[in-house]
Write a structure and sequence with these properties.
Layout: E1 7-8, H1 24-34, H2 41-52, H3 59-67, H4 71-80, E2 92-97, H5 100-104, H6 107-118, E3 124-125, E4 131-136, E5 148-150, E6 153-155, H7 160-170
Parallel strand pairs: 2-4
Antiparallel strand pairs: 1-6, 2-5, 3-4, 5-6
Length: 178
């Protein structure tokens, strides 16, 4: 398959248990497994998000206590890095490349179309929980811009029409049986 169509990036992570499905012992386990490492807070936050799908607000005081840091310190790191979510993501995480190469190839128009089609801005999830929209500042597919990533699969030479087709394929349709 040509890189302009799609490239799958497999991510090794613990299984996501679903939005809201966490408990304090799970958080303590993730912290204790990594807190001995230098600069452990970032790996801990990544491990929690990989496992749960986001960083629950209730996890912040537990992380702070276990790391002997303030809640403000932990919250500051979470809010500084756009990668971290504090709410469950939709069924599909959609990242739109905002780097210069994609912008030069029509990325801004694509971004506007995507925000309008989904009815959300960056860092938000559609009302039907199908898509969470996130900005990203390079997908490494510069020669084939503009590019997006959906669930870690990169799509290059994306156009509004191609996006609409992709979104339609990914959207869950409820079928009523009579």
């Amino acid at each position: 398959m040509h890189m302009s169509e799609s490239v799958s990036h497999q991510v090794a992570a613990m299984p996501v248990t679903g939005g809201g499905d966490w408990n304090p012992d799970m958080i303590r386990h993730e912290v204790s497994a990594l807190k001995h490492k230098p600069g452990a807070l970032l790996p801990i936050l990544h491990a929690i998000q990989d496992r749960i799908g986001y960083i629950p607000e209730g996890a912040v005081p537990i992380i702070a206590q276990e790391m002997q840091q303030t809640r403000a310190d932990v919250h500051g790191v979470i809010s500084f890095y756009h990668h971290f979510r504090t709410r469950p993501a939709g069924s599909h995480v959609l990242q739109v490349c905002r780097a210069e190469a994609c912008q030069a190839r029509g990325g801004r128009a694509l971004e506007s179309h995507i925000r309008e089609k989904l009815g959300v801005d960056y860092h938000n999830t559609t009302a039907d929980y199908e898509f969470t929209l996130e900005p990203v500042y390079c997908l490494g597919n510069c020669a084939c811009g503009p590019s997006i990533s959906v669930d870690n699969t990169v799509y290059g030479r994306m156009s509004p029409q191609k996006f609409d087709q992709l979104a339609d394929r990914l959207t869950t349709t409820v079928i009523e049986l009579k």
